[in-house]
Design a protein that fits this description.
Elements (H helix, E strand, L loop, with lengths): L1 E9 L2 E9 L3 E4 L3 E3 L4 E6 L8 E6 L10 E4 L13 E5 L8 E8 L11 E6 L8 E4 L3 E3 L4 E6 L8 E6 L10 E4 L13 E5 L8 E8 L11 E6 L8 E4 L3 E3 L4 E6 L8 E6 L10 E4 L13 E5 L8 E9 L4 E2 L4 E6 L4 E7 L3 E2 L4 E8 L10 E4 L6 E2 L5 E4 L5 E7 L4 E9 L7 E3 L3 E2 L5 E5 L9 E6 L11 E4 L13 E5 L5 E9 L4 E11 L9 E7 L4 E7 L5 E7 L8 E8 L4 E7 L9 E6 L3
Parallel strand pairs: 4-10, 12-18, 20-27, 29-35, 37-43
Antiparallel strand pairs: 1-2, 3-5, 5-8, 6-7, 6-9, 9-10, 11-13, 13-16, 14-15, 14-17, 17-18, 19-21, 21-24, 22-23, 22-25, 25-26, 25-27, 28-30, 30-33, 31-32, 31-34, 34-35, 36-38, 38-41, 39-40, 39-42, 42-43, 44-45, 45-48, 46-47, 46-49
Length: 607
């Protein structure tokens, strides 16, 4: 059992109580399963929430969006009632298939674990599901058919043969497939049979594995069979070459060939060296030299201009057939070397402007002075541009949020950097605190804003820039993520955040234009003491008393006093002290001159 101590302060007394709380336990019926077995997950002393659920994730992955399998504690995928002590059964249909996994008890439709996860493994049951599974050979040319055969299969109409990259377990997105009837439409089961993959249904050169998969799912009936597809270089093109092997980043690259097959949709693709052609080339052109296929070219060349190339690095050019990823010959390696100066970094010593200047710093790659730099300009959109070619840093102290642009050689390369001025909470935009615990909501309030239907409030981690990185939390001013209507004044509540430093901003019209803020705040396990007197002093000559306490922005406070030990606090010094922010100080005359002992109390006024 765990123990939770709850303490409540009232006047001068502190009352504490010790409560026993149950610790949830989660377990599996065993730690290793065949792919055809059920998995039973049990727990005791659960909180009894109807929307608590069991999630399965790849081992080592923290729970979040996209579980590999889940059931609510009622054993279904629709939450109804909570279960304090219970179990759920995952049938193979609800399981992710072979691999190493972790089961988690997760709270209330979220991703917060109630306890540590439990690891388990799912293997492949090879006992009797099929007798044999084989290919007609182990290595193929890309123009060859591949024949996959099996004996004594289960005879399911929706069993299928899937091809995946070697080392990848079956899942969504096979590289090629056929049902056991030899087509891509399931009709009848086949106990003893074979299917033939023609090149059209194959993924192209590379190292692959064929799997017999059960009943339209991803559960293997046996171990996969590895095979390789190579490149047939016999006669598809006479030659394939580049005009040289190394290029500057400002140079054209010319790719030539002879005796091509004259397909209008043959194309030249550029890929990182070592990557087999597939979707997502780094650059490409059809054999007519454009990105619109028109006519085939038997003997020809295409020219890649620098703007269409991927930039410095090691690359391979491929002649690829007929709008797919099948090479007609071996690829040709080449290298692009930077011959243009570029901005490497542009940073600030602080994201937020304080009383002292901050330092903007930058570095430029000019190959140790071998690439000429004509100009390097910093602009802020307000003051005249500054030439900083001879500098590596500059101190600035803007009065508000400012965008700085560093421009190299008349815009050949640019970087944008934004620095912010912490506005703190004010009458037009505020937070209820500047320090929160990880269990506390964050409340933002605004007044007299434009309040458009797509104006929004975003919360960002310190160091993130709106527009460059997504917000951590956000809502439109109507409190939804749909938007609509006009809300010039209002407030909204954001859920608790993990420990860290953050800032909040009010932004306009689905953009990243800041209308109000930013307001910096912190989330800390230490939290804060909501009202704590941090300093008190008394000047005997002037009889002036000064009290300082912790406070919240945009609040008012009342200071009471008592001159006896009954602590009645029936009289006030000031009942509307305006907050000074995180701390507030009040200096006042002794309300009871000559009294030897006084007691004071500070209270926050309710709105």
């Amino acid at each position: 059992m765990k123990h939770l101590v709850i303490c409540v302060s009232g006047f001068a007394l502190l009352w504490c109580a010790d409560y026993a709380t149950a610790e949830i336990a989660i377990s599996l019926d065993k730690t290793s399963y065949d792919s055809t077995e059920n998995i039973v997950v049990s727990w005791t002393d659960g909180p009894g929430n109807p929307a608590d659920w069991i999630g399965i994730y790849p081992r080592g992955l923290t729970p979040g969006l996209g579980s590999s399998g889940y059931l609510y504690v009622n054993g279904t995928q629709v939450s109804t009632v909570g279960v304090v002590d219970g179990s759920v059964t995952f049938t193979p249909t609800f399981l992710p298939g072979p691999g190493s996994w972790t089961a988690w008890y997760l709270l209330d439709d979220g991703y917060t674990p109630a306890t540590e996860g439990v690891d388990f493994d799912i293997g492949i049951n090879i006992n009797g599901l099929i007798d044999s599974f084989s290919l007609d050979k182990a290595t193929y040319e890309f123009s060859e058919d591949i024949v996959v055969s099996w004996t004594n299969g289960p005879g399911n109409p929706a069993d299928w043969i899937g091809i995946y990259p070697r080392g990848l377990m079956p899942g969504v997105g096979s590289s090629g497939y056929l049902y056991v009837n030899g087509t891509q439409v399931s009709t009848v089961g086949v106990v003893n049979g074979s299917v033939t993959f023609t090149p059209t249904f194959l993924p192209g050169p590379g190292s692959w594995t064929a799997w017999y998969l059960l009943d339209e799912g991803y559960t293997p009936a046996t171990e996969g069979v590895d095979f390789d597809i190579g490149i047939n270089i016999d006669g598809l093109v006479g030659s394939f070459s580049l005009d040289k092997a190394s290029y500057g980043s400002s140079e054209d690259i010319i790719v030539s060939w002879t005796d091509g097959p004259e397909n209008a949709t043959d194309w030249i693709g550029i890929y990182p060296r070592g990557v087999t052609p597939s979707s997502g080339s780094s650059a490409w052109l059809y054999v007519n030299g454009t990105q619109s296929a028109t006519a085939g070219v038997v003997d020809g060349s295409v020219t890649f201009a620098p703007f269409s190339l991927p930039g410095p690095g090691d690359w391979t050019a491929w002649y690829l057939l007929n709008d797919v990823y099948t090479p007609a010959t071996e690829g040709v390696d080449f290298t692009i070397i930077n011959d243009l100066a570029s901005i490497v970094s542009f940073t600030s010593s602080s994201q937020f402007i304080g009383d002292d200047p901050i330092t903007l710093s930058w570095s430029v790659d000019d190959l140790n002075g071998n690439i000429p730099i004509q100009s390097l300009i910093i602009e802020d959109g307000i003051n005249p541009p500054i030439e900083v070619k001879a500098l590596t840093s500059l101190d600035v102290n803007p009065s508000g949020n400012t965008d700085y642009t560093l421009s190299l050689n008349d815009g050949a390369d640019t970087r944008l950097l934004t620095v912010f001025k912490d506005t703190g909470s004010n009458a037009t935009f505020s937070l209820d605190w500047t320090t929160y615990t990880p269990e506390e909501d964050v409340v933002a309030t605004w007044a007299d804003a434009d309040g458009g239907p797509t104006d929004w409030i975003g919360i960002y981690k310190l160091g993130d820039t709106p527009g460059s990185i997504s917000s951590t939390l956000w809502n439109y001013l109507d409190g939804t993520q749909v938007g609509g209507g006009f809300t010039p004044s209002g407030s909204m509540t954001f859920p608790p955040l993990p420990e860290g430093d953050y800032f909040a901003v009010l932004l306009l019209n689905d953009s990243h234009t800041i209308a109000q803020g930013p307001i910096r705040f912190k989330v800390s396990l230490g939290g804060r003491i909501r009202i704590k007197v941090t300093e008190i002093s008394y000047d005997q000559i002037t009889e002036q008393i000064t009290i300082t306490w912790t406070s919240r922005p945009n609040k008012t406070y009342a200071v009471f006093f008592s001159d006896d030990e009954q602590l009645n606090f029936n009289a006030d010094v000031d009942d509307s002290v305006v907050s000074g922010g995180d701390t507030t100080t009040l200096t006042f005359s002794n309300p009871e001159p000559g009294t030897l002992k006084l007691f004071f109390r500070v209270l926050e006024n309710e709105l």
